């Protein structure tokens, strides 16, 4: 079965790329502030694994709020970074493109901690998979690491430390700010894995 990966360039999706070795990877620039760094991290992983990689671009910034969009968080936002229906949008865009090469399974880098958001739950993955498989391409959506923590996924994937450090997790910029939720997770995971991390400012 031909597989593709929705690749953000963060720790989770980079580790899934290394672990699952999909046939194709797609990164979406939807207007997030750190898009260029995410693209560069994704490109580096794909080059190392010799996986074809394509960047899709759509301007969804007017619909976002908070850190990733560089503006005040919407009062209804469940977190400081929020694009309503973002994962649904990204999965749909990638699936639309992946149909052209007959992809039958789309992988996403959801991990256990993502359950804090509804689109990070097993129920969401099941529902979006049913929806896509019901439509023209008959495509499935799978989250192979959904029951793992990020540290567990990284260990299981066998991704080398050097390749892991290519990951970009900052929500605010192409250069890590060291203060957003993405950077905090990045440093916490490195510490859990036994990396020395000096976060002194």
Describe it.
The chain has 201 residues and is an alpha/beta fold. The chain has one domain: HUPs (Rossmann fold), CATH 3.40.50. It has helices spanning 11-20, 35-49, 86-98, 122-134, 150-157, 161-164, 181-192, and strands at 3-6, 24-29, 53-57, 65-66, 81-82, 105-107, 140-142. The strands form two sheets. A five-stranded parallel β-sheet has the order 3-2-1-6-7, sandwiched between helices. Strands 4-5 form a two-stranded antiparallel ribbon. It is globular, with a radius of gyration of 16 Å. The model has no long low-confidence stretch (mean pLDDT 92).
What's the architecture in CATH terms?
A: 3-Layer(aba) Sandwich
Binned strand content: 5-15%
SSE string: EHEHEEEHEHEHHH
Report the CATH topology name: Rossmann fold
Instruction: Please give the order of strands in the largest beta sheet.
Output: 3-2-1-6-7
Overall form: globular
Question: What's the CATH C level?
Answer: Alpha Beta
Helix content: 25-40%
Radius of gyration: 16 Å
| Amino-to-carboxy terminus distance | 48 Å
User: Total number of helical segments?
Assistant: 7
Characterize the largest beta sheet: strand count, sense, and whether it forms a barrel: 5 strands, parallel
Structural class: alpha/beta
Mean pLDDT: 92
- The tally of structural domains comes to 1
CATH superfamily: HUPs
Low-confidence blocks of residues: none
Please tally the β strands and state the result. Answer: 7
